[in-house]
Amino acid sequence: MAVRRLEESDFDFMSRKPLWFGISGILLVPGIIAIIYSMLTFGSPVRLGIDFTGGTLAQLTFQKATAAQEIMKVVEAQGFKEVHVQMATDKAGQPVTALIRTKTMTNEQRLKTMDAIKTKVGPFSADRFESVGPTIGKELLQNAVWSVALTLLGIIGYISYRYQFDFAACAISALVHDVLFLFGTFSLLGLLLNVEVDSLFVTAVMTVVGFSVHDTIVIYDRIRENMRNAGKRDTFDDVANRSIKQTIARSINTSLTVCLTLLALLLFGGETIRWFVFAMLLGIMIGTYSSIFNASQLLSAWRMVGVKRNAV
After folding, report:
1. pTM score, two decimals?
2. What are the strands of the beta sheet with 84-89, ordered from one edge?
3. CB environment 98-120: b (16+ within 10 A), e (fewer)
4. 118 FRET partner, CA 20 to 30 A, in 141, 159, 198, 209?
5. Range with the lowest mean pLDDT among 116-130, 135-149, 253-267?
């Protein structure tokens, strides 16, 4: 009902460009600072997981509460200097699940380390064990970068063909806004909570890119239709504002149903997909915001600059 009232109201989405751009700036600046700091600290905008750097990841669930420091000492005693242990709690709030990251283990080292943990820390069940070589990790990272770059180029080409280049440029700007927000958020999480990104994060980014540009194109398509039937006194902002109102219910309702599903997965889906789902949830939310409050406003600003330049 609230969305329907907004659709039928006199609310002007286009006259508040400085507000919407200002909100985007507030959301992006902390992340950009974190990305710069992360680049100086880790050599990458986010803390990379073993999928990209190479190494071994073990997820162990103990029968009783366990300290991360205790597990770390046992693994270090096996000859691994760089050991990261992250504990997850059960429903009672007890730290029983450990995520252990080290350099790549051989099968012999793995068996020896697991035996040592079982003897000195306590019995456990091995829920997950992954090993990735550094060469494969580097190749995965390069492929991830190429996949994102090619996707953006494809979107530019398609929208330029179907609409105009200024539509494509503004749609990509809104996409960059969404991706930058995601990277900035996970850069902050990496610095504050040691959260690492893996190949699932790339999947989340690509999904968000597709969802966001789809939402933006729906609005752009309505703008193009309304421009054909616009009156002589209608400005571009009038047409864009009317188009946003006509599509806002669809945008919010679609995003809301996806967010509810992702929220359920975030709460009950388990540790292994938690950060993937969190990235998706954030991405869908920021993608919906940019489609409604940034994409058309950027197109309007682009055309205003073009009018002034032509007038001169």
Report:
1. 0.81
2. 84-89, 95-102, 55-62, 124-132
3. bbbbbbbbeeebbeebbeebeee
4. 198
5. 135-149
pLDDT tens digits, 145-196: 888 788 888 888 888 888 888 888 899 999 999 999 999 999 999 999 888 8
Question: What distance in Å separates the CA atoms of residue 265 and residue 268, rounded to the nearest whole number?
Answer: 5
Identify the band that residue 130 occupies on the pLDDT scale cut at 50, 70 and 90: confident
- CATH number, span 2-48+136-305: 1.20.1640.10
First vs last C-alpha separation in the chain? 47
Q: The domain 55-132: what is its CATH number?
A: 3.30.70.3400
CB atoms under 10 Å from CB of 286, counted, come to 24
Burial label, 75 (beta-carbon count in 10 A; 0-12, 13-18, 19+): buried
Q: How much is the average pLDDT of 200-204?
A: 89
| Extents of the domains making up the chain | 2-48+136-305, 55-132
Count Cα atoms within 13 angstroms, Cβ side, for 25: 6
| Contacts with 133 (C-beta within 8 Å, 6 or more apart), sequence order | 54, 104
Instruction: Output the six-digit token pair for 21.
Output: 């751009």
- Residue 78 is classified by DSSP as T
- 202 in Cβ contact with 148 (< 8 Å): yes
